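With this grant's support, we have settled on a layout for protein records. An illustrative entry appears below exactly as we store it:
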Amino acid sequence: MTNLFSTTTDKVELIKEKAKMSRLETIRLISYAKSGHYGSSFSSSEIFSTLYYHVLNYDPKNPQWKSRDRFVMGKGHSAVGVYPILADVGFFPKKELDTYTQLGSAFGDHPDMNKIKGIDFSSGSIGHGLSVGVGMSLGARVDEEKYRSFILMGDGELQEGQVWEAAMSAASFKLGNLVAIVDNNKVTVDGVTEELMNVNPIKDKWESFGWNVVDVDGHDVEALIEVFENLPPVESDVPTMILCDTVAGKGVSFMEHGFEWHVANLGEDDIKKAIAEIEGGN
């Protein structure tokens, strides 16, 4: 991806603005569908924008470029927050977003790699993403390619047994080109994660599986940049997990920390309030 920045300050500010854009577009697109995933999309906004405007190596004009970095959303229900970014960086015209969830549209509640340029895996059934990432990273090793595979998961997704099989495999296969990102927003569609099935202590568990684990505030753009810029070499033997401390519904005060906004619909007055808070946020 072309360098968009002349200074570090420019970089940070642009990434913050793109996170706002993702949240605002999420509200607009869900208004078409009349139901959608606000909370888990907003908790990932800074992660999405940091990846696409600073970290990932890709070419929107050549979406299937063999040497590109891969990005897989285990939590595919947050796709509505990624679609606007994919359009913004040039994978497809922005006007196509206006068809979101409409009959015949490529843009559904979950991403479809066969219909949308820039999507590397059709996710939706929680728990598969890391296994796919293991396969992608093994493929890179076989093909002697230097790309990384980045896999975004929710903390609730860690309740799936397949995640731990993949975690064990990645360490055993010495996949230092694999980066797992956990959006630790502490809630699922049914309630508070630790009250339903406690996945803590997350860091200790992943370290015991042989991973390099890094803690970071998932809404602090400067901190995210530092973590991604200091990943071990792609040739290294130890996979990395980035544990992002996040807030479900981040950016809209009446949504924050509430599992009720995992899937919901905003009324007209609440849309105005949400937009005002996001536009006025830092």
Observations:
- The longest strand covers residues 178-184.
